[in-house]
Amino acid sequence: MHEDAAPPRPVSGLRKDVLLALGILLLAGPLMQEWFAQTAPRYTLTVAVVEDGSLELDPYQATLGLDQARYRGHTYSDKAPYQPLLAAPLLGVYLVAGGDAFPIPVGEEGAYFELHDVNHRGLWWVTLWSSTVPAMVLAIIIRRTVATVYPRQATVVAIALMVGTLLLPFASLLFGHVMAAMWVAAAWALLRGSELSARAAVGAGLCLGAAIGTEYTLALVALLALIAAWAMFGFVRACWLSVGNGRGDPAAAALQLARLRGPLRGVLPRAPAELPRPGCPRCVQPDPAEAR
């Protein structure tokens, strides 16, 4: 008589998480992006913090495109600060290991366009930790969140979300979108459930504060989460959520104040053709005295 074959052992949740994360790493990790206007202020702010201990981007003006903020003769990043700042220790490790912040000299006019034609390993390294790794964490959060309701479909949903949407290409670009989505997903995972503990509410608030500090527009999402928490769990739990959120947002506001001397001040209201674009002979370089 033949013994019945033993049923296959189910794959553990931890193994699914590891395989899912490795798949995203293999798809997005090896890609090296080009230098362009939206990436420049994020990376240069990280470099300025590490090498100069400053929020001003004046030494890297030649590497910037249209995305920048000018105030009282100085140049700043126009992006939310958390992603560039969180990347600073990792860039420091890269520099200590012998890497270069820029593959070419960046003090001369036209560096913005020259950076298009070279492999920028420093940019790749920062992108890996600022976008690819958050994408891996986001996929795990999504899989585990769905698994609480539909455990058999959770892995498929996570794969479809990460591979079948724009999350995958954004995982290889130095934007704040993927990191901000990771913070929002973490907050939602903490807010789900029939009951909400004070610890979970504060944790969700911290995640939402980090999301706002990564992408300012997610303040609307944080407001909706606060309203939802109030409706589902009552006023007290919503207050705990606000406590956590209140610890993250003031830090972003303080950084904005340090950069531009005003929590709501942003890029100067100029027509696109009037904004400085180093290396472009058709663009008018603004007089620093006008920026006040």
Could you characterize the architecture of this molecule?
This protein is mainly alpha-helical and 292 residues long. It has a domain at 33-118 and 265-292. Helices cover 55% and strands 2% of the residues. It contains twelve helices and two strands, in the order ααββαααααααααα. The protein has helices at 13-28, 40-52, 82-86, 88-96, 111-114, 121-147, 154-163, 167-170, 177-191, 198-214, 219-233, 235-260, and strands spanning 69-71, 74-76. Strand 1 and strand 2 (74-76) form a beta hairpin. The longest helix has 27 residues, at 121-147. The protein is globular, with a radius of gyration of 22 Å. The chain starts with 12 loop residues before the first helix and ends in a 32-residue tail after the last helix. The model is unreliable at 262-292 (pLDDT under 50).
List the keywords.
12 helices; mainly alpha; 2 strands; 292 residues; disordered C terminus; two-stranded antiparallel sheet; single chain; 2% strand
Task: Reconstruct the topology from this structure.
Layout: H1 13-28, H2 40-52, E1 69-71, E2 74-76, H3 82-86, H4 88-96, H5 111-114, H6 121-147, H7 154-163, H8 167-170, H9 177-191, H10 198-214, H11 219-233, H12 235-260
Antiparallel strand pairs: 1-2
Q: What fraction of residues sit in β-strands?
A: under 5%
Relative helix content: 55-70%
Give the averaged pLDDT, no decimals: 81
Please state the structural category: mainly alpha
Q: From the alpha carbons, calculate the radius of gyration and give it in angstroms.
A: 22 Å
SSE pattern, N- to C-terminal: HHEEHHHHHHHHHH
Strand elements, count: 2
Global geometry:
globular
